[in-house]
Design a protein that fits this description.
There is one protein chain. By secondary structure, this protein is mainly alpha-helical. The chain has one domain. 73% of the residues lie in helices and 2% in strands. A two-stranded antiparallel sheet has the order 1-2.
Length: 497
């Protein structure tokens, strides 16, 4: 077995415990250890991505107990890709937190960050539905602490709303798992994929109920309408660096939907049929529209970034909901793009907000280092609105092309939402960088914080320049997702060897 599959979970967990027990109160050593761990995680993620590409799907059985009786971690192209994305984003946001001093504004920032990375990595790698729930709870508990980092009444109030919504999601999740286990006697994803096609017709109603509950859970995580209410207030009031890191958390909902929708509840499963697609597509299109309208009417730059994040999830789920290899490949490319672009926008929002007299977009105010930040904002806005030459344009074209022979409504909503987002970003940019008059505040020296934003922008540029090989790789990944025999066989269900 490839023991390195456990590293993205064990490494941050070990580092977090070490910080709490040994390095408690020593911020300098915590920073040094966090940077070292981030570099190591990126190296491991690249190696796992290479392994998944060259050796195919691998399963790791904890305690050497065979599936479905034991806990398994499964590395395939999709999980390796998401772990690599997590590693890159978490390291960039770590550098921003250190450079901006956000990590010094409250206790336990670095341990909480490591626990969050552990939970997200575990959610991507687990091959068991119950342990997906466990890792959801780990990442959510860590995110609660990060959300209220630095304190403040508005941040605490938004944190309560965030907790309440996710507690509802957790309750639905555990009930859905109980229904599935009661019907099938297993929660191993590969075992479910093998058993559900031969399910007795009398149990179909319970499985459909469980599937709907799970879709609601994943929709809460991904902030799909009408379950998106928690996101604008939460992300807009969170520290900018935390909101940037949270860009990967909504993708956990997208990843889980893809995993269950292609492995456990595929469109050809008699018990569920096209149930997932019929629920997801309308919610995705409305989310895209609501996010675009919110971008146009946002009163602060962090809220604009939050609504742009909702719009990006709506567009990603529009492609996911079709559940075909072509739309899945387009969705994966757009997920890569939107994660980096959303994080950049939140980092820029934080940089801008801390250099202005106030944070509102309805009146102008002088801003320090306006030229540099204007360039960053222009790049982030171009990426989020899906304009050329950055990867957002390519991702949007891939999704439009996947729907070229059907659903004209999809084209109408996507293009209309893009137009509204362009107007929203243009309004915000003109207020921030064209209208201010008077002397600008003194410049703030934050090379690491600004460098973190530019590093993510470099990732978008690489995604654009390498669009050909990246989309080809993603097409193979999507094909493997929709033909999951390799994933099922890798689990060696009920076998000891």
């Amino acid at each position: 077995m490839n023991h390195w599959i456990t590293a993205p979970i064990i490494l941050p967990a070990f580092v977090a415990v070490l910080m709490i027990i040994v390095l408690r109160g020593n911020l300098a050593l915590q920073r040094a250890l966090a940077i070292a761990a981030g570099l190591a995680l990126n190296g491991i993620a690249i190696a796992l991505l290479w392994s998944a590409t060259t050796h195919g799907t691998e399963a790791y059985f904890l305690g050497d107990w065979p599936a479905p009786f034991g806990i398994s971690l499964v590395l395939d192209r999709l999980s390796a890709l998401m772990v690599a994305l997590l590693a890159a984003l978490s390291f960039a946001t770590l550098l921003n937190a250190i450079g901006s001093g956000w990590d010094a504004k409250g206790a336990h920032f670095h341990p909480l960050l490591q626990f969050l990375v552990m939970g997200v990595a575990g959610a991507f790698l687990t091959g068991d539905a119950f342990n997906l729930f466990v890792f959801f709870e780990v990442l959510l508990i860590a995110s609660y602490g990060l959300m209220v980092h630095g304190s403040g009444r508005e941040r605490t109030r938004a944190g309560f709303q965030y907790v309440a919504f996710n507690l509802v999601g957790s309750s639905l999740f555990i009930v859905a798992l109980g229904l599935i286990y009661g019907v099938t006697g297993t929660l191993n994803l590969a075992d479910l994929a093998a058993k559900l096609p031969s399910l007795p017709p009398g149990d179909s109603a319970l499985i459909r109920t469980a599937a709907v509950m799970l879709i609601l859970v994943f929709a809460i995580k991904a902030a799909l309408v009408p379950l998106q209410f928690w996101l604008p207030g939460t992300y807009a009031n969170a520290p900018g660096v935390v909101a940037a890191l949270f860009a990967i958390m909504t993708k956990v909902g997208a990843y889980s939907t893809l995993r269950f929708g292609t492995l456990v509840f595929p469109p050809d499963l008699p018990a569920t049929g096209d149930l997932l697609a019929s629920l997801l597509l309308p919610a995705a299109l409305v989310s895209l529209a609501v996010g675009a309208i919110g971008t146009l009417g946002a009163t602060t730059l962090p809220r604009l970034a939050a609504f742009a994040g909702i719009a990006s999830m709506g567009l990603a789920f529009t492609a996911i909901a079709a559940f075909t290899p072509q739309t899945t490949a387009a969705a994966l490319y757009y997920i890569l793009h939107s994660t980096l672009a959303t994080a950049i926008l939140f980092l820029v929002a934080d940089l801008v907000t801390r250099r202005r007299a106030h944070g509102r977009l309805d009146s102008a105010a002088p801003i320090a280092q306006s030229g540099l930040l204007a360039a960053l904002f222009l790049a982030a806005a171009t990426a989020m609105a899906g304009l050329p030459p950055l990867s957002g344009f390519i991702g949007k074209l891939l999704i439009l092309d996947a729907f070229r022979d059907q659903a004209p409504l999809v084209w109408t909503v996507i293009l209309g939402a893009s137009f509204l987002m362009i107007l929203g970003f243009a309004r915000a940019g003109s207020t921030l960088f064209w209208k201010p008059e008077g002397a600008a505040p003194p410049a703030i020296a934050e090379p690491f914080a600004v460098g973190a934003a530019f590093s993510l922008l470099a990732g978008l540029a690489a995604l654009t320049l390498l669009a050909g090989p990246v989309t080809a790789w993603l097409a193979d990944t999507a094909t493997a997702l929709h033909a999951p025999a390799e994933y099922i066989n890798a689990n060696r269900l009920g076998q000891d060897g």
